[in-house]
Structure formats: C-alpha cells, structure tokens
Amino acid sequence: MSNLHDTIHKVTQRVIERSKPSRKAYLELMDREADRAPDRSQVSCSNLAHAYAGATDDQAVMKAGGAPNIGIVTAYNDMLSAHQPYGRYPERMKIYAREAGATAQVAGGTPAMCDGVTQGEDGMELSLFSRDTIAMSTGVALSHAMYESVALLGICDKIVPGLLMGALRFGHLPAIFVPSGPMPSGVANKEKQRVRQLYAEGKVGRDELLASEMGSYHSPGTCTFYGTANSNQMMMEMMGLHIPGSAFIQPGTKLRQALDRAAVHRLAALTGSKERSLARCVDEKAIINAAVGLLATGGSTNHAIHIPAMARAAGVIFDWTDLSELSSAVPLLARVYPNGAGDVNHFHDAGGMGYVIGELLEAGLAHRDIATVWDSDLSAYALEPGLDDDALAYRNVGESGDDTMLRPASDPFSPDGGMRLVEGNLGRACFKTSAVDKERWTIEAPCRVFEDQPSVAAAFKAGELDRDVVVVVRFQGPRANGMPELHSLTPPLGVLQDRGYRVALVTDGRMSGASGKVPAAIHCTPEALGSGPLAKLRDGDVVKLCASNGTLSTSADLDNREAAADPAPDWGVGREMFSMFRMHADGAEQGASPMLAAAGL
C-alpha cells in the first residue's frame, strides 16, 4: 500500500516480526485442521443421523450431501436488549440458506452478560471471564465438525471478543459476524449524565433516576452510547468480518433484513475458501486496523484488553506500546457519546463507518489490502448500504453530515487517537485522553487508597474526598476478583471534579466502555495482587498521573515497604466457580485471559 502512513507501517512491521513464530504455528494448525476436516460421506452413519435428526426440513438435502452446512453460534437471550432480536434469527437464516442452496443449524449457544445490569454489583466479577467462557462455548459448538462456515450472532461487551477468540481456533472455516443493530435514540446522553450526577449528590430521588435510565434504555437493540458493544461493531467493520455497513442498522428494518440475508448467502458462497477463511482474514494487518478504528473513533478502553486477547488467538502479539504509538499518528475523527453529544444513530446518519473507513484509507491510516469476507480488500467498507427496490445496494457516503460528530482526517477533532500508555514505578496503565479535557491530563495529588467501590462511595458521601485527590482502587485485577468495571465511580468523581477539585482515578480494574471526563489510569499492570506496586501505596502518598509525558508514578519509596495483604476472594453469585480462571489469568496487557494462558498461547 503505497500511501501507508510511516507510523502505521512501522508498528505493523514490528507486530509481524514479533509474531512470526506464533503466527506460523497458528496457520500450520489451521492448515492441519482443514486437511483433516471430515468428508461427511466417510463419516459414520450413526454420527450423521445424530447430527441430522433435528433438522426436519433439511434432512433430505443433508442426506444427499454436497450442500454447505452453516453453523450458527448464537448468544441470544432476551434479558440483553442488543441480543433480544436474535430470538427469531435462526429460523430466518435457515430460509436464507435454502435460497443459496445451503443448510443451516444452530451449532450452539453461549452466555451473554449485560454489564449494564451488573454494574456495581457482585455479578460484575464474572464479566471479564465470561469472554473466555464464551470462547470455550464456541469451541464446544464447533467441535462437532459438521459445518462448512460459521455465522456468529453476538454484539455486546465480552461477547464479540469471546466469539472471535473461540471461532479463531476453528479458523480454517469462513466466518461472518451478524449484528442486529442499535435501539432507536432515547433520552439525550448528556441529560442522562446530568441526572446521574444529581442522584449522586442526593438532589433527585430514585424515581427520577429510574425514569431517566428507562428513557435511555427502552427497547430491543444495542445501547446507543459508544461503549464497548458499539466499539465491537466498529472493529468488525475495520477487520472486514461484517457484511459492509452492517454495524449500526436498526433491528426490524428492511435494510437490516437485507444485510442478514446477504451474510448467509455469502457464507454459502465462501464454502471451501482458504483465502477467506477466518484464519486468513484475521492477520496482523486486520488487528492493526481494529486498533486504528478504536483510536480514530474514541472507542472503548476495554479493547486495550480485548485486542491483545483476540490477536493472541490468531497467533498475533500486540501490546500497549503498539496501541500508544498508533495513537500518536491516528487522528480522532469522531465524537460520539460519551466523547460527544450524539449517539451511534446520529453517528451513522452523519456518515458512520463508511465515512470513517473512507477517510482512514484515503489518509493511509488503515490497511486496505486485507482479506475480508465480502471483497478482495477493505474498499467496499468505505461505502454506505441502502436498498434499491428492496435489494441491497451500496453508494458513496460523501461528506460528513454533521461536523460536530464526524470530521475528515485533514481537519480532525484531535491530531491523535486519545489512548495513551502511562508508566512508571506504579506499573503500566491506559489513559483515555479523548474523553478528558487537556487541562486535566496532569494530576499530582495525595492519594486515598481503597479496596472496593462501596468504600469510595462511603468516603464521598462523608465528604472525605472534598479535596485534590488521586483515588486508588486496588485489588481489582483479573487474578484478584476478575477485573470488574468500576463505572459506578464515575458520577461521584465527576461531582468532585465539577466542584473544582483536581481528581484522578488509578486502578488495576477496568472502567466501562463509557469512560468519561475524569482522568483515569486503568488496567494497571502488574496488578496489586501478589505485591504489585499499587499494593504498597498508603493514604497520603503523592501520586502523579500525566498523559502528556506518559507518567504514572509516586514519590513514595515503595522498595522499602511491605505490600498490603492479598484479600481473600469473595464467594456468592457464582464467583467461586471462577476460581480456576482467576488463578490462571495473565496480565491485562496480554489480554487477561486464563484460557489463552493455560493453553500456552
């Protein structure tokens, strides 16, 4: 690619070189898996009978042989609004498959947690490890070896990374992600944020808060703020794993149906394609594209963990130095709530992913020459889907429809992508600058150390944090308690900041994909458990967090201190069942994956 930006080229080549042994081993495994994939005419008749028994309408076609069989792995449940539309998908997808001379079966289901339901609750400690559970569930589904391609039905936070990690272990098969789209816009996000802060200050009651929240999250479809779920959809577009333009088309529309039909027809057409197998689509360049898209759109900080984990599942080694260096070159092209006023529906209406991809390709900031599920390169993803007499059609996007939300690479909101690596004697961490005013990028203040979220809330209510303060919340890493999101800290810390105090958060836990205006060093590694640096901090130690020069440090003499004792893990809400996951999890920068760590990947 002749016009590729020097930094994009440099980081890509570094990742390729670093990944040579692991990528080679992965592709060799996938080639062996493809070579030993069963010819069903040679498979035991008893085996086939078991597989075909439930496929009443397709048994004759399956028995005759020759028709590709598409395995559907679904994360459907109707507690999770984004996944509620998937309930009827399998029966429709079977019809679409028959149209293309294929068959389809639900190969298996996976869990699907809603982090919005578990925020601030004990169940959040299962959230990150649900990703690896989903990956293993995908592996169980595909282990039956009855499929020529895979349709992956999932959208939200840990679900897309988990589905991809699992499907990559069957990467000799073609695979396409099939989203269902966002719910219509509800209460404006800034208004929702305002009511949350008023509630944190005790100025409105629970009834007002619930009314505001239900006005925001009100119907089937993905939540409309640009958090981890919608960042997932962006990345699948950037990696070429969707039908182009699929990410943000609302459920129940004719265009949504046309895109879903196209996905099934395309899976039937890709049967036997080694060049478009998932293993070949998800390579070093595709991983770089995912990271570039994350930076260009101000996406979820959770993907600083998920991208390395997804990459490792494909034999690619990607770290936070790579992410930070890419961020220095990739301009911020989008401002979507919580980084702006409008939501993903407004983003899509203004030009959406087609506009972003077109700008990145034109500026040499993304790899055009990747294998996609749709075409020979990423160019088709710079177009906008529509209908022509009910048939799927594509058109040029044109200029941004709203320059308060989408800007060209030549005139971005910010010259960099807003994700910085900070490091020092407190470890390495991520800082999302795109959501924080530049005047708050440097905070130096005495710290107050906590070991859980309720203690922070209690100190806030007691007025103990009404000062310049760095709030440290430790023992929140993957091996301590599963690395929960700490999103419930955002409203009280935001209140302190609005009162004029210099406030920051430092934690080995995660923040939500909706990380907001308070400066935060998150995903601190090494984590506090096992005598990590955060375990040696004491109340009153001066901590400096600076995104401008990449600093996370304390002036305290940590070398001559004893670390705080590791807390015992809590039981209840199923947390005890994940003890093995906590024990084997590796660091946040490696993806915090017990599955990949235990497999030696």
UniProtKB/TrEMBL annotation:
<dbReference type="InterPro" id="IPR056740">
    <property type="entry name" value="ILV_EDD_C"/>
</dbReference>
<dbReference type="GO" id="GO:0009255">
    <property type="term" value="P:Entner-Doudoroff pathway through 6-phosphogluconate"/>
</dbReference>
<keyword id="KW-0119">Carbohydrate metabolism</keyword>
<dbReference type="Pfam" id="PF00920">
    <property type="entry name" value="ILVD_EDD_N"/>
</dbReference>
<keyword id="KW-0408">Iron</keyword>
<feature type="domain" description="Dihydroxy-acid/6-phosphogluconate dehydratase N-terminal">
    <location>
        <begin position="68"/>
        <end position="378"/>
    </location>
</feature>
<keyword id="KW-0004">4Fe-4S</keyword>
<keyword id="KW-0311">Gluconate utilization</keyword>
<dbReference type="InterPro" id="IPR020558">
    <property type="entry name" value="DiOHA_6PGluconate_deHydtase_CS"/>
</dbReference>
<dbReference type="GO" id="GO:0019521">
    <property type="term" value="P:D-gluconate metabolic process"/>
</dbReference>
<protein>
    <recommendedName>
        <fullName>Phosphogluconate dehydratase</fullName>
        <ecNumber>4.2.1.12</ecNumber>
    </recommendedName>
</protein>
<dbReference type="InterPro" id="IPR004786">
    <property type="entry name" value="6-phosphgluc_deHydtase"/>
</dbReference>
<dbReference type="InterPro" id="IPR037237">
    <property type="entry name" value="IlvD/EDD_N"/>
</dbReference>
<dbReference type="GO" id="GO:0005829">
    <property type="term" value="C:cytosol"/>
</dbReference>
<feature type="domain" description="Dihydroxy-acid/6-phosphogluconate dehydratase C-terminal">
    <location>
        <begin position="405"/>
        <end position="592"/>
    </location>
</feature>
<dbReference type="GO" id="GO:0046872">
    <property type="term" value="F:metal ion binding"/>
</dbReference>
<comment type="similarity">
    <text>Belongs to the IlvD/Edd family.</text>
</comment>
<comment type="pathway">
    <text>Carbohydrate metabolism; Entner-Doudoroff pathway.</text>
</comment>
<feature type="binding site">
    <location>
        <position position="223"/>
    </location>
    <ligand>
        <name>[4Fe-4S] cluster</name>
    </ligand>
</feature>
<keyword id="KW-0456">Lyase</keyword>
<dbReference type="InterPro" id="IPR000581">
    <property type="entry name" value="ILV_EDD_N"/>
</dbReference>
<feature type="binding site">
    <location>
        <position position="156"/>
    </location>
    <ligand>
        <name>[4Fe-4S] cluster</name>
    </ligand>
</feature>
<keyword id="KW-0411">Iron-sulfur</keyword>
<dbReference type="GO" id="GO:0051539">
    <property type="term" value="F:4 iron, 4 sulfur cluster binding"/>
</dbReference>
<dbReference type="GO" id="GO:0004456">
    <property type="term" value="F:phosphogluconate dehydratase activity"/>
</dbReference>
<dbReference type="Pfam" id="PF24877">
    <property type="entry name" value="ILV_EDD_C"/>
</dbReference>
<keyword id="KW-0479">Metal-binding</keyword>
<dbReference type="InterPro" id="IPR042096">
    <property type="entry name" value="Dihydro-acid_dehy_C"/>
</dbReference>
<comment type="function">
    <text>Catalyzes the dehydration of 6-phospho-D-gluconate to 2-dehydro-3-deoxy-6-phospho-D-gluconate.</text>
</comment>
